[in-house]
Amino acid sequence: MNTKSYFFQSFAIVALAFVAFIGFKQILPDKIFPDSKVDSKNVLIDSLLLESVANDSLSQKGDSLSESEKQEAGEKITFNPAEGIEFPSETFDNYKGFQYLISFYEKLYQLEKNPQSKVRIAYYGDSMTDGDLIVQDVRSNYQERFGGNGVGFVSITSESAASRGSVKSTYSKNWKTLSYLNVKNPISPFGVNGHVFFANDKVNTTWVQYEAGLNKNVNTLDNPTLFYGRANKKGNVNFIIGKDTLRKSLVPNNLINTLKVSSGSIKAFKANFIHADSIPIYGFNFDNGIGVHVDNFSQRGNSGLPISMFNANVMQGFNNNLKYDLIILHYGTNVLNYGTKNYSWYQRGMTKAVNKIKESFPGVSILIISTADKSTKYDLEMKTDSAVVPLMKAQKRYALDTESGFVNLYTLMGGDGSMVKWVDESPAKANKDYTHFNQRGAKAIGKLLYDQLNKGYEQYKVLRQNRDTNGSKPKAVRKTKTDSVSVKKDSVNE
Amino acid sequence: MITIDSINNWFVQNFGEITLEQAKSWFIYNPEEKLLFNTGLFLGLFLVFYFVYAFLRKTFYLRLTYVILFSLFFYYKSSGIYFLLLLLSSVVDYGLSQIIYKATKDSTKKIYLVISVILNLGLLGYFKYMNFMIVTFNDMFHGNYQLHDVFLPVGISFYTFQSMSYIIEIYREEIKPTKNYIEYLFFVSFFPQLVAGPIVRAKDFLPQIYQKLNLTKQDVNNALFLIIGGLIKKTVISNYISINFVDRVFDTPMNYTSFENLMASYGYAIQIYCDFSGYSDMAIGIALLLGFKLPANFRTPYKSTSITDFWRRWHISLSTWLKDFLYISIGGNREGTFAGFLFPSLFFFGLLLWGISNVAESYIPLGIAIGAIVLFSLTFLLSKKKHQTLVTNFNLFTTMLLGGLWHGAGAQFIVWGALHGLALAVHKIFMEFFPSKKEGKGPNFLWRFFSILITFHFVVFCWIFFRARDFETAIQVINNIGQLTFEPEHWQAIVIGYKNVFLLMLFGYVWHFLPEVITSKMKFVFDKTPLIGKAIILGFVYWIVYATAVAGSQPFIYFQF
């Protein structure tokens, strides 16, 4: 063998290897790593979703994307006037449904006129809003403009408590937690946050501690108030504020009971629960009673479907205390990964969930926020997941069907391929899972959401003024479609 | 019968239709698609390049020019128009080096050396540190300076250092300058090590230019073995675990469990090693295929028994460069200089300020600051040769601080460098009190085991700062790991959830800690494999790289226990 120069042999190896590669590519499978199915025992995912997906795979023949989609996009949507106000007609493609937010907008308007009144928003979401991401930005945008102090309703325990900056909460490990995510028949009904907690450790104290965050408008805990449910036995709770201990008793007579920790603003407190083993505990509310308050009810792994398990009576009990004006449902991330593009099952399930919201919070405006863009690797490139657009359309469909407002987060953030941009941008605005936003991105999303809602509000004010100058009388009840649940749209819900 | 059509069909089936647009895109700079060694495009281009190169092996200037042109094209594909910057800086450096060589007076030599160092560091400073300095200034003095829209040319940190080594070695009369600019440009632009090292020293490389080009069978064996290992380390292990696990945890550490944070830290340690050493190995292997021997850059660094040992095994070309040109230049272990005292003093002063400014919230930062200063002082106060140790430790600390900053513009890199500098000083004083027994057999197995374990964990701890996006995130990761409790069932569920990631991590670590006997056995078997067998092995590795690249990323999962 020629030991002097081995160049051509060397070239031959590299070139032959290329040929071998072509051969291997043809005979070997495409994927080296099997897409492992994760045992869902310890993974947070809601059980209703898993059931729906299982049923769907039995009934569906395939992903049939109907031809009528093109017609659907141009479908004209006109609104019946409510309170003498009628937003201009829209197409399905650009559907926003400001018309259905009129009662919320009217409350905002009243607040603007009278800064002593209040407006409350419940923001339901999944891991996208974990740690108060997005919601804290929506909240601060509203409080900046309309006033209001406090983070709103906060659960006892949460798997994302550590990552939340707007309020710091720590808790003992012995809380018994039931979540609507994976429990079907709770001992006591779920609270407005979809959870119910029990302090049933008889040996060690069960405690929770809250400390205000640092940001403006949430840097104090205002009028902290405990929410708990009905039980047969009474219990006690010790509130420790600084060096003082206040002992108070829990009287669980009503479906929903409240207990004020202290009036005014404090920085931090701890609550030790004593002999409260059977009393359903829901959480604490922090608000100063005026301005806008936004509650974050985020739950990782939630598809939104579990909302249909809410007990309407209990929710009405919460609503009597908290008086909601807008319910936001921000879901979708958790239903993207099931290899289906037909979301009729999800549309049906979520319609049920929205109707449950209507039953629970009568007359309250509802806003549906669609899935954001999410990328998946196709061959060598990260692209918008093919399930994103079908899901977004299904979400728009149930928003329209249930007469809810709609935010198309997918187009709002840039549409096709936008998640790749948000991840690759410097500084990055989304995480490397190509699904979740980081702090910076969440702030941008919060602003986009607020801006769309506010655009509708400004438009509402113009329409309202036109109505008043034209002298047309407000109608108390607007016409209702026969195929949807009829709801009274009173301007002020008492 | 084979017709042109059938060949065409086969081609289209395997490679897809190739349009004129696509063919054009192979030669035009695209910031989205850098020309890395592990891409198909590089393989294709290299095959064509290499074929011609083999024919040119007996020529000299023709061959050099040919390689230079390919190198410039390679750099253009990575950095676009900035290949002109490479050319410009090489012209200036070459001119200065000629002046230094020809000058007779020492003072003249020195002046031109200083000019060249300022120019080179100025260039690096502008592109790499300008915005960092502006942000720091704005933060400290509430300034409001606009950031510059600077593009960081790929590999500027590497070729600037390489260029500087040439000039300093001429100044120190360790080498003679090249005969002309072409030879010099060949050295600076040599594409295998151009963008990510190893930082080749002029005195190691230049003599090879003038030797008769030779490539033995053994060289090719070594080269292929390195390339195969490098490809697997970089594209399979490093890329997969970073995108599917490590990046996610470091993005939002508080959303993950303590165990996941701990594993992400171990994961990052093997990821950065595989990424960096894998790319180095490919560079060394490709250079070897061209007939040039570059020095080894990594020697299984996590097997180090001390932090001093670690720096003899980790990124060797950088640590020797820093030792020879920075540490020695500021006085080494001989004398203290202004520069040697300046940076550590600034650092400790800044640390103290940070501690004091946080006193309102917590005493821990102040405690850390005072603790670090006391610890650093003890490393020379306890020494028998106080003055010499003081000088050495200050110079060492300076080297590590600036070495940290070389890796990137950011406070976390300074902290990373400082931790290593402190550890080196502590290890020095430790060795003074407990000198290792040199005579006879080495330390016993248990001692060795614990030394490796402790060194490894210290290094992993420092990597947390290196990887985290900012200081705050690093603290979150550390705090989260601090809350780890022993819950084997939970750990098992997590490991199963990220099965592929953990298998690759395990594979990476097992490979790293394999006794050398086994690696050399593997090498021996590979050497004995016939030519066609090697081609098949290499082809299989190409396939693994391809299959990993097309593997979809794992959907996110959240665990609940």
Automatic annotation (TrEMBL), chain A:
Q: What is this protein called?
A: Membrane protein
Stretches that traverse the bilayer = 6-24
Keyword annotations from UniProtKB, A to Z = Membrane, Transmembrane, Transmembrane helix
Q: Supply the Gene3D superfamilies for this chain.
A: 2.60.120.1360, SGNH hydrolase (3.40.50.1110)
Q: Which InterPro entries match?
A: SGNH_hydro_sf
Q: Which residues form the signal peptide?
A: none
Q: Name one GO molecular function term.
A: hydrolase activity, acting on ester bonds
State the organism named in the record. Flavobacterium hibernum
Locate the compositionally biased regions of type Basic and acidic residues.
Answer: 480-494
- Region named Disordered: 467-494
Please name the SUPFAM superfamilies in this protein's record. Answer: SGNH hydrolase
Automatic annotation (TrEMBL), chain B:
Predominant location category: membrane
According to its UniProt record, where is this protein located? Answer: Cell membrane
Instruction: Provide the alphabetized UniProt keywords.
Output: Acyltransferase, Cell membrane, Membrane, Transferase, Transmembrane, Transmembrane helix
Transmembrane ranges, per UniProt, are 35-53, 111-130, 150-169, 181-200, 220-241, 338-357, 363-383, 413-433, 445-466, 491-514, 535-559
Which organism was this protein described from? Flavobacterium hibernum
The entry's family comment says: Belongs to the membrane-bound acyltransferase family.
Bilayer disposition of the protein? Multi-pass membrane protein
Put simply, this protein is called Membrane-bound O-acyltransferase family protein
Taxonomic lineage is: Bacteria, Pseudomonadati, Bacteroidota, Flavobacteriia, Flavobacteriales
